[in-house]
Amino acid sequence: MKTLSMLNTSGMQGLLCLSLAAAGSVHAFGIRPDVSSSTPGNLLVSRRSLGGRLLPLWTSPKPVFPPQVPENETEDCELTPVDFSDEILTEDLNPQAGGRLSDLEGLSSDDDLHWFRFGGVGRLYEDEQNPEEVVLDRLKRATVAIVGMGGMGSWTAEALCRSGIGHLVLIDLDDICISNTNRQLHTMSTNVGSMKTDVMRDRLVAINPFINITLIHDFVMLDNVEEVVGNQLKKLGVDVLVDSIDGDEEKAALIAACADNGVPVVTTGSPAGKNDPTQIVCQDLTQVRGDGLLRACRDRLTKNFDFQINDEQKPWNIAAVYSKQGVKESDAAESSSDTPSFASFRNDGNLGTVCFVTGTFGFVAASRVVEMIVDENLVQPSRG
């Protein structure tokens, strides 16, 4: 006999997991409040929802896609009610005594909620000249644009959201592919085919309901980069731009447009063929060595956009996140980290990628952005 638990979750929010153990396989379902029922707290055992479509999650020794649930899988299930009392959910527990929940009813304003969420960030960055409330205010008032919601941009976006940035501009026209699973934060079985920016917006708003999210559904290309940076982002008052593009030509054009329009920029190199997150660093783009994507981008900046490299090299004031690790050779693709090639640039290329490297790229980029905002060191790019 299998057991199916119906949960009375009056006052609870979010998704709960329910498992049916059966003959070597586990079927995971989402549980959501029954909005069609007049009885508060009723739950439906349903497949995860995506744009009105119901899609199942499936874990099996031999997964089948799309997965199918046998018609008799839920027959003869015994319903076992589980009671979660309101007292448990609203009890005022002392966090310093190990309590897990706190009573939010006593909070008087949105500012209180913001402090509860992000006060730890303020305390981390405060100093004698910049107390905690000043740090939080600077982050809350900041607008950061992220170009590319892939393996690095998705992690950057969430890190900035969880750091208390008040306004994020997400720029991409790509949709989620199942092959993104190994490296991109947003990718789940339930949202394959959805727009990356849309999924990230919903995720970030769930983290901080008061964040302001602007979506630009477009790829940044040579023929529209000035429109995006010089028009759209300028109107939005972007303080810093994070470049997570994986093409050197578009990357160079974007950086040049930022220089032309006085937009501080943090750029990222290629995580392809890298598996050691401890070797990821952030330096001025002129000082980067061992990253084929950034080398090709730098060459294009000097040849096509009048950026200067000479013996007495002045910094370009472009923070670049990259790995000092050499590219891991593979049978699928042989490439040197200093030899530009299409496969070595594209984050989904034959060299391979892994989330703890792409995630670290994104986190280092986010840390640099937060530092620039807190220190009010929003230096504009220079051509040297």
From TrEMBL:
THIF-type NAD/FAD binding fold domain mapped to chain residues: 136-374
Signal peptide: 1-28
Domain of life of the organism encoding this protein: Eukaryota
A GO biological-process term: cyclic threonylcarbamoyladenosine biosynthetic process
InterPro entries: ThiF/MoeB/HesA, ThiF_NAD_FAD-bd, Ubiquitin-activating_enz
Alphabetical keyword list: Signal
UniProt keyword annotation of S-adenosyl-L-methionine present: no
UniProt entry tagged with the keyword Signal: yes
UniProt cross-references to Gene3D superfamilies, sorted A to Z: NAD(P)-binding Rossmann-like Domain
Gene Ontology molecular function: any one: ubiquitin-like modifier activating enzyme activity
Protein name: THIF-type NAD/FAD binding fold domain-containing protein
Species of the source: Amphora coffeiformis
